[in-house]
Amino acid sequence: MEPKMLIGELATRAGVTPRTIRHYQQLGLLGNIEQESNGFHYYTDNALQRLHKINVLKRIGLSLDEIQSVIDLYFEEPTMIKGKQKVLEILARHLQETDAKMESLAQFRQEIQANIDRIQTIVDQMSSSP
Known about the structure:
Blueprint: H1 7-14, H2 18-27, E1 34-35, E2 41-42, H3 45-59, H4 64-74, H5 81-128
Antiparallel strand pairs: 1-2
Helix pairs in contact: 4-5
């Protein structure tokens, strides 16, 4: 039987707050959590592993909704290949969105520079005339 821990111990071992654990649990990110008849939730090493994976996925830029779509895939099979493939798809989409934003910002910057140049020309012309 796998050792069980209460939320405080899990939080300490994972480096998160109990509030974060409760939030992730509400979102379904921690999988099935055992609740004893005394009302306490007991967590296993699986929950700890999931918390570590959530932190990694957050660091690489996934939102909690995106993490929710991949977290179970990481624990379906030992190679975690399905989860990794899904993360690749998400990151590729992020890259496309970032490229589109950068293109839009570059165009906006050109428009601002054109307006600055146009107004500067008018100011220079007005300043040099008697």
